[in-house]
Design brief:
Layout lengths: L6 E3 L3 H11 L5 H19 L5 E7 L4 E7 L4 E7 L3 H10 L4 E2 L1 E6 L6 E7 L8 E5 L2 E2 L3 H12 L4 E9 L1 H10 L4 E7 L2 E2 L5 E2 L5 H6 L3
Parallel strand pairs: 1-11, 4-5, 4-6, 4-8, 8-10, 9-10, 10-11
Antiparallel strand pairs: 2-3, 6-7, 12-13
Helix pairs in contact: 1-2, 2-3
């Protein structure tokens, strides 16, 4: 895969350990959900380093000082339904005031193309930093469509956060949206003939919600 300036692949021992547990087919729904949240929290630390801040005056027990704080209402997180819901709590662990929108998409099993069925976004999202959440970046179709939707709504500062990505999907999004930074914990080998990531972890939505 090419080196893209807008792609950040995290390489940390804690993430690698949790990814190993996440991949294991014997990992149950409860632990799988907890791992998704924990990995998301670790990615959040990196992806939010450019969040908007302002300077305020704080009074400590000893004296007054100036500190930088995050601007209230400056961030929205948007999970792509349904698997993206599993990442919301992981972001809220570090950023509890982030507003939440939802984009509903499903993949046509014949064409592998994404189909939109729901969209609800916070008021004023066009003025916020928007972080799109989806555990798996496979073909890149859903991510590109969701980014296009956000841009049509006026969003200009968009990031994409994924747990695992395939080179095919990463390249598609990176080339289609060079202004969108992509944050991945792990880059896997490839897609199979059915559009699933290898070695991957199976269907993230099914494993998150115990539907298979």
């Amino acid at each position: 895969m090419k080196n893209y300036k807008n792609v950040v692949i995290l390489d940390h021992p804690l993430i690698r350990h949790k990814i190993a547990l996440l991949r294991d087919k014997t990992t149950g729904t409860k632990q799988f959900r907890e791992l998704i949240e924990e990995i998301t929290t670790l990615i959040t630390f990196e992806s939010f380093k450019e969040v908007k801040t302002k300077t305020v005056e704080i009074e400590t027990p000893l004296e007054k000082c100036e500190q930088k704080v995050v601007v209230e209402g400056s961030v929205a997180i948007v999970p792509i339904l349904r698997a993206g819901l599993g990442m919301v709590s992981g972001v809220h662990t570090l950023f509890p005031t982030a507003k939440v929108g939802h984009i509903g998409m499903y993949r046509d099993e014949q064409t592998l193309e994404p189909k939109e069925y729901y969209c609800k976004l916070p008021d004023g999202i066009e003025h916020m930093q928007v972080v799109l959440l989806d555990p798996m970046l496979a073909t890149g179709g859903s991510a590109c469509d969701a980014i296009n939707l956000l841009k049509r709504r006026g969003c200009k500062d968009i990031k994409l956060m994924n747990i695992i990505g395939a080179p095919e999907g990463v390249e598609k999004v990176a080339e289609a949206h060079p202004d969108v930074n992509i944050y991945l914990s792990t880059l896997d080998r490839c897609l199979n003939e059915n559009g699933y990531i290898l070695p991957g972890l199976g269907d993230a939505g099914d494993r998150l919600f115990g539907t298979k």
